[in-house]
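Table S2 (continued). Query chain:
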Amino acid sequence: ASVLTPDGLSPLLVSEAELVKFVRLRAANDALFTGKRNTSVIAWRAILKEMGIQRKMSTSQARKKWENLKKKYKEMKNPPPGVTVNPTNWQWYSLMDDAMEGRLNDSEAMVSTASLGDDTDYRPDRPRKRGRDSYQSEIEFLVEGDDSRLSEETTRDRTETGSDRDEMEEERALLESDRDTVESERMVLEREKIVLDRERAGLERDLAALDRDRAALEREKAAVERDRASVEHERAQLEKQRADMDRERAKLERSRAALERQRAGLGGEQEVDLNDAAEEGERQAETETASVEKRQKFLDLFEKLIENF
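Corresponding output:
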């Protein structure tokens, strides 16, 4: 038996049981209706195919039917101020309340959107064209004054044709919109690619500069190592000279001791000559010592400079 839409005007082409399943499937597959372009058509096709009524109802009719059900439910649940309604008077209120409150989310299995076929699989069947005898019979009825049936059939044909045309125009508009979106996204990707290429070129330049800095640092490090080796060599030479000076100082001390012994047994001119020789030796030793100490200080300062570098 057919039932009426919530507005009580246009007849549904489904039974009460099919309408219940229609609502339950729509609620259980709400995740398919993401709001993106063309997803609504695909989701409704999957639901209609699951119910086996894809030849009785188009996707636009299914969408309008669902919108009418939601509109009627909202009017019953939240009537205008000053208007009192009894929701239980509408036989689908309880079903729609469960659907809108999420209690039917697990009532049916998720439908598959794969292998849905082409557009021709989802166009409602049109009434068969009647033969000449049929038209002759109807003409006879018209002659007798009963023209209501022909008028009704003609109106239904026009309505279904207009619905098909509207659905095709809507799908064509969606395809054009999708094409524009894809083209826009392609242009955005091209711009992003240009930016990435510029960033990659800048990164490569920075990398080359870093390599040059690293090479310069390696050269400076090698120069510091050479300077350190030179300082170590100078230090070794200085230590050798200091050892020579120590030997000379020891020799001088021995000469001074011998001089003191000789001074005790000599006098006059010999003593003066010996004193002069001793003083000259001391001055020479002090000069060499001062020179070595200056070189040592220079080497110490130079080594600290290299270490700080």
